[in-house]
Amino acid sequence: MLNHAAVDHFGGGSTGLSNRKEKAEDEVVHLRREIGLLSAVSFIVGTVVGSGIFIAPKGVLMNSGSVGLSLLVWALCGVLSMFGALCFAELGTSFTKSGGQYTYLLETLGPLPAFLRLWMTFFFTRPASSSTVSLAFSSYVVEPFFAPCAAPTVLIKLISVLAVTFVVALNCWSVTMASRTQVALTFIKMSALVLIIVPGFIALAKGKAEPLQNGFEVDSLTLDRLPLAFYNGLYTYGGWFNLNYVTEEIINPNRNIPLAIILSMVTVTIFYVLVNVAYYTMMTPSELLMSDAVAVTFASRALPGLILVIPILVALSCLGTLNGGFFAIPRMLFVGAREGQWPTIFSMINIHRRTPLPAVLLQYPLVVLMLINGEIYQLITFSSSAEWFFIALTTLGMLVHRYRFPLHPRPFKVPAVIAVIFTVVCFFIVGLSLYSDPWNTGRGCILALTGVPVYYLTVQRFRLPNRLRHIFNYCSKHLQMLLKVVPQEIRTH
Prior knowledge:
Elements: H1 5-9, H2 14-19, H3 37-48, H4 52-55, H5 57-64, H6 67-94, H7 101-108, H8 111-146, H9 153-173, H10 175-205, H11 210-213, H12 226-236, H13 253-282, H14 285-290, H15 294-302, H16 309-338, E1 348-350, H17 357-373, H18 376-404, H19 416-436, H20 438-449, H21 451-460, H22 466-483, E2 485-487
Antiparallel strand pairs: 1-2
Helix pairs in contact: 3-10, 3-13, 3-16, 5-6, 5-12, 6-12, 6-13, 6-19, 7-8, 7-18, 8-9, 8-16, 8-17, 8-18, 9-16, 9-17, 10-13, 10-16, 16-17, 18-19, 18-20, 19-20
C-alpha cells in the first residue's frame, strides 16, 4: 500500500537492512521497553482517575436511591472493573504484541472484528473521549475566573485545543517525558483525593455521619434505574485496559502487567469508596444531588482555604487522563498498520525521537475538529455502547481462544468464572443500552458497521483505482520524509 522509497532515504530500506547488524543497540529504530512497574501503575491510575470521581457521585446516588446502596455500587463497579482488568492481564501476557483490544480480537476472533475496533476507535470513540476530557480540563481552568457568570464558550474551546496540542507535542517528543509526566500528574491527582478523604474522615470521627446512619433506605429505589447507577460508576473506572496498548514497551511484562493492574485497581477502588464516604460527611444526599461539581462543593465546606486549589487539581487530573489516552491509543493504530490493516506509514517511528509520530499525530486533527464542531456529548452517548460491545467481544474471544488452544502459553491465567461473569455483564450493559436508548445505540452500531465495506475494499483486497494508489503512495513517501520516520528495525514481540 506504500511506496517505500523514502525508507531507503532514511536508512530503513535495503541499504538499512545491510547495515543493521553494524548498528549499536542505541541506534536501532524501535520502541524501547522504558515502562517499569511504577510507570505502569501511574499509567493505569492516571488514566482511570479523571474528572469522573469529582462529578459522577451525583449520577450514582440519583439512580441508586440511597447512600448505602450508592457506596455498594461504587465498590461493585470496582470489583467488576477488576474482573475485566484481570482478563486483560491474561491477554497481555498471552499475546506479547502491543495494540490492546485490536491485537486480542485479531488473534482470537479474526481480522474483521479487529479492523472494526480500529475503525471505531480512531474515527469516533477516541476523538470524542479526548475532546470531552479536554473540555472538562479547560472548564475547570477558566470558570473560576468568571464565576458566578458562565465562561465564554470560545475561550473554553481555545484552552481545550491548547491542552490537546501540549499533550500531542509531549507524546511526539519523548516516550520517557510522557511517562514521567504521567507519574507526576498521577501523584497530583491522588493528592487531590487525599485532600478530600482526610477532612472527611476527621469529620466522621467527630460524629458527622447522619447520611451514613440511615444509608440503606430504599424507598426511592427502582430496579430500572439501578443499572444506570452502575453505568455512571463504571464510567469513572474506564481506562483500566489502556496499559495493554503498550505491552511491547513494558519492562518484564509477564510480571509487571498483572502486578500493575492488580495494584492499580485495588488502589482506585479503595480511594473511590473513601472519597464518596467523605462526601457524605459534609453533604446530605439532597445537597449532593443539587451540586454539579461535588468536589468543589465539598471543598467550600471542608477546605474553605483551598477552594481555588481544588479546580486546579481537578484540571490536572483531567490532563493526566488526556495524556494517558494520547500515549496509549496510537499504539493500536501503530500495530494495526504493522499488521497491514492501515496505511504502512502509521507503523513507522521517528528516527530521532523514537516515537510513533504518524500514529500520534493522526488523532490531533480529529480531536480538534470535534472540539470546534461541538457535537461531542452526543457522540459519546452513541459510541459508549459500541465501546462496551468490543470489550465484551474481547473477553469472549479470550474464552474462545482458551477452548481452541488449551496449550497456548498463559503466564497469568484468570479463573474462567471471572471471565464469564465479566463478559455476560458487558453484554447485559449493551443490551440495556439498546433497550433504554435504541436510537443512539443503533447509531453507534451503524457507525461501527461503516467499517465493513472499508475493510473489504482496502484491507482484504486493495481495490482502489491505480490513479488513487499513485497519489496515495506519492503523499506517503513525502510525508515519510517530512516526519523522518522509518519502519521498526527489530522485532519487539
